[in-house]
Structures are given as structure tokens and as C-alpha cells.
Design goal:
Number of strands: 0
Structural class: mainly alpha
Number of domains: 1
Largest sheet: none
Shape: elongated
Order of helices and strands: HHHHHHHH
Radius of gyration: 25 Å
Oligomer: single chain
Length: about 180
């Protein structure tokens, strides 16, 4: 399978997942079973479906806000807020995704949905072909797809403890 075929299949399968929603691995198996072979080659069907769900979560997280948040709502990856019930219809999920762009659900469908699914396909394809963690590039990382530590060590480490000397005792006030 060529890279173009894989990309086309990814977009088609992600579109099917957007149609059905992904409340769990069973939705991957039923709505887009080709993703199992495309994304994860090892393990049984259930293990591969769980791997696809983890990949979807990681890829949408990497896309950031508002794109990743809108995709998680569209795909029903996040649990529904309390009192809202499960969003079963695509219209309800579209409306939830549109909130991140402050537009109506139908406007979201017309202007953002296809581009977001394509962005998710690009992110997943990048993760599969390079093994890197994100498409944000290596310029901020260490050249291997890993982000730098958020707590860098001191630039000039302190000298070893053996070099410290106690301070001389000061004379008491009002002395000689």
C-alpha cells in the first residue's frame, strides 16, 4: 500500500468514526475495522482496538486547543459532562465541537469538520511513519520527537559539599 492510499484510507476511516462516534474500542471494531490493520499490527483485535483509541487520544491531544478539543467532542472521545447524557448523534457531537469555535453546529460541519479530520489523519500518519510523538516538529525538542524537560537543571551546579567552610563566629553585640 502506498503512502497516498494509507492517507486516503485514514481520512475515510476517521470520517466513519466521526459518523458513529468512538465511545470505546468496540466502535473501532464495528465502524472502522481497517484501522486495526493500518494502525496496530500486533495483538488480538481487542488489544489493537484499544491501541487505536489510545492513538486517537494522543493525536487529538497533540493537535492542541481548539482543534484537538473539537475533534475529541466530534468523535465522542471524552466522556459527556454530568447531566448531559451520552452524545449519541452526530448532530449533538457536532454541536459540542462547534462550541470550541463559537459557531453553530451546521457552520462547523461546513467550515471545519473536513479540515479537522484531515489534520487528525496527518497527525496519525506522522506518528505511524516516523515514530515521533507529534507533528509539531523537533525544533522545540531533542531531535528525537521528545519535548525538553520543563525543569532544567541549574546552569552552574553548586560546588561539592566538601568545599564549604563554616562562617567565623561573630562577636556579640556590645562587645569590647
Amino acid at each position: 500500500m502506498t503512502g497516498d492510499d494509507r492517507q486516503r484510507r485514514l481520512i475515510e476511516d476517521l470520517g466513519r468514526l466521526a459518523d458513529h462516534g468512538v465511545r470505546g474500542p468496540e466502535d473501532i471494531i464495528n465502524a472502522a475495522p481497517r484501522l486495526l490493520a493500518l494502525v496496530a499490527a500486533q495483538g488480538g483485535e481487542w488489544a489493537r482496538a484499544r491501541g487505536v483509541v489510545r492513538l486517537l487520544h494522543a493525536a487529538t491531544q497533540a493537535l492542541g486547543h481548539p482543534r484537538g478539543s473539537a475533534l475529541r467532542a466530534l468523535l465522542a472521545l471524552d466522556p459527556a459532562p454530568r447531566g448531559m447524557g451520552v452524545r449519541l448523534t452526530k448532530t449533538e457531537r457536532r454541536h459540542a465541537a462547534s462550541v470550541y469555535y463559537r459557531i453553530e453546529g451546521d457552520t462547523f460541519r461546513k467550515t471545519h469538520e473536513k479540515n479537522l479530520i484531515t489534520a487528525l489523519a496527518i497527525e496519525i500518519d506522522h506518528r505511524l511513519t516516523t515514530g515521533h510523538d507529534t507533528t509539531r516538529g523537533d525544533h522545540a525538542g531533542d531531535g528525537h520527537g521528545r519535548m525538553p524537560s520543563t525543569r532544567p537543571g541549574p546552569k552552574n551546579p553548586p560546588p561539592p559539599a566538601s568545599t564549604f567552610r563554616p562562617l567565623a563566629k561573630r562577636e556579640a553585640k556590645g562587645g569590647p
